Amino acid sequence: MLAVAYRYLNRRERTEAEMRTHLARAGIEQKDGEKAIATLVDQGYLDDARFVRLFVQDKRELEEWGSDRIRQALLARGVGAYLVDEALAKQDSDGEIERALSLLRRRFPSLAGDRRERERALGVLLRKGYDTDLALEAIAIHTAF
Asked: Would you call 23 exposed, middle or buried from its count of C-beta atoms within 10 A (0-12, 13-18, 19+)?
């Protein structure tokens, strides 16, 4: 049972919920699965707080995701809402607007005067998970330059 869990952790960090689902699919009884999860947590191999911290950092820096998309992805992975809110609260809103501006500068070098391009830029930011108000503010700042 632990061998199955260790192999599942071999590729990347996992959440407790992901491990629970994997063990159930592998045919391991719930009681035994919970024991395995408790062992992995005690050994430090399974840590939802660490998973959330690394996930937020990776998605912000590598994929330029906004808070809304990160929150949605973490909740879908079974992470507790309190951990998600705590991790996202540590991120400053100034940093988020800077990331949105960086994305706009790279994808849309010039937005001045072109309504269609501004709408496309808004769509890109919203799909990346940026809040509507923040996306509009970033577009306004980018257009002003």
From this structure: buried
Cα–Cα distance for residue pair 74/72, rounded to 1 Å: 6
Positive or negative CA dihedral for 49, 54, 56, 59? negative
pLDDT tens digits, one per residue of 51-95:
999 999 999 989 999 999 999 999 999 999 999 999 988 876 668
The dihedral through the CA atoms of 19, 20, 21, 22 has a sign that is positive
Residues belonging to the chain: 145
- Nearest C-alpha neighbor of 83 from the set 54, 60, 59: 54
Q: CB of 15 within 8 A of CB of 77?
A: yes
pTM of the complete model beyond 0.70: yes
